[in-house]
Write a structure and sequence with these properties.
The protein is mainly alpha-helical. It contains five helices and two strands. A two-stranded antiparallel ribbon has the order 1-2. The longest helix has 25 residues, at 29-53.
């Protein structure tokens, strides 16, 4: 149940991105649901590998490079999911920042 609620929250957050981040568009809520699912899978599988591979850069930037990795993951998901589009890296970066804030708030409320 907890996982389902988080999935719906992320889907709503992805829909919300279209209103606050120029360059991100979502065709419908179904596309947002699929994007949230794929983003969760990508963050669970690919993101840890990228963080490990970029560990020296991450240490030098005091962890801020993780935001770049999150933006790349969002951009990757946009290239996979039909109906979810991220125009450029700046939009992906701003979208990743918003999704990070949503994740942080969700984690704080569910613990």
């Amino acid at each position: 149940m907890h996982l389902l609620i988080r999935w719906l929250i992320y889907a709503v957050a992805i829909m919300f991105l279209t209103y606050i981040v120029p360059g991100i568009s979502v065709k419908n809520f179904y596309s947002a649901l699929i994007a949230a699912l794929i983003l969760g899978l990508v963050n669970a599988v690919i993101r840890p590998l990228l963080i490990l591979l970029t560990l020296p850069v991450n240490i030098l930037t005091l962890g801020l490079f993780t935001l770049v990795i999150n933006a790349l993951m969002l951009w990757l998901v946009a290239s996979i999911v039909k109906g979810f589009d991220v125009k450029n890296f700046v939009a992906a970066f701003l979208g990743a920042l918003v999704l990070w804030a949503v994740s942080w708030i969700t984690n704080a409320l569910t613990k």
